[in-house]
Design a protein that fits this description.
Distance between the termini: 133 Å
Strand content: under 5%
Radius of gyration: 58 Å
Shape: rod-shaped
Number of helices: 6
Oligomer: single chain
Structural class: mainly alpha
Largest sheet: none
Helix content: over 70%
Number of strands: 0
Length: 198
């Protein structure tokens, strides 16, 4: 059995559109009426359904325990800010001190290099002077050199004898008195006695 399809007439469809339009119009009127009343009232006269509101322009009252907490937070923030300022000042002072220390170390290093150069120059000059004086004693007549050596401190004289060429030192030693020759020989022999053997 076949079902017969029912065709709706265009008039039925038109009535649905009219009813929907009336419903939408009614809703718009209701919204418009409430909005008009709300706009007509001042900000202090707005009524909300059972909700307690604070008029605009009046501050909210903070509970005491929350107020104490906010005060504590504010004080803590101030302390932290002052500590940050002190820390920045200290870091700046440390940077300045570090730069000063670095500059002083550089100056000390340069002074040390200059001192080493001066000491090396002085040692070279002293060594040159000793070499020159040793050559003078070597070129003297052995008897004259022996007479001078007799008057010298034994350690000082032994040092020159050790620096002289062996034949010149032997000629000077031959001109010394036996006591002086013995004393100079003991000093020369004992000069390297404390040097480690191994």
């Amino acid at each position: 059995m076949k079902r017969k399809s029912v065709k709706r007439s265009p008039a039925g469809r038109g009535s649905l559109i009219v009813v929907a339009g009336l419903l939408i119009g009614s809703a718009l009127l209701r919204l418009g009426d409430g909005a008009g009343q709300a706009f007509a009232r001042g900000p202090d006269e707005i009524v909300t359904d059972g909700i307690e509101t604070t008029p605009i322009g009046q501050a909210c009252k903070t509970p005491k325990d929350l107020e104490a907490m906010l005060t504590a937070f504010s004080e803590r923030e101030e302390r932290i800010a002052s500590r940050e300022v002190a820390l920045k000042d200290r870091m700046h002072a440390l940077q300045i001190a570090d730069q000063a220390v670095t500059r002083k170390l550089t100056e000390l290093s340069e002074a040390e290099e200059q001192l080493r150069a001066t000491i090396a120059l002085a040692e070279t000059a002293a060594e040159d002077d000793l070499d020159r004086l040793t050559r003078v004693y070597e070129n003297m007549k052995p008897k004259q050199a022996a007479a001078l050596f007799e008057e010298m401190d034994p350690n000082f004289a032994a040092g020159f004898l050790a620096r002289m060429r062996p034949e010149s030192a032997a000629a000077v030693m031959a001109g010394l008195s036996p006591e002086a020759a013995h004393l100079f020989s003991v000093v020369l022999a004992g000069r390297n006695a404390d040097v480690p053997r191994e």
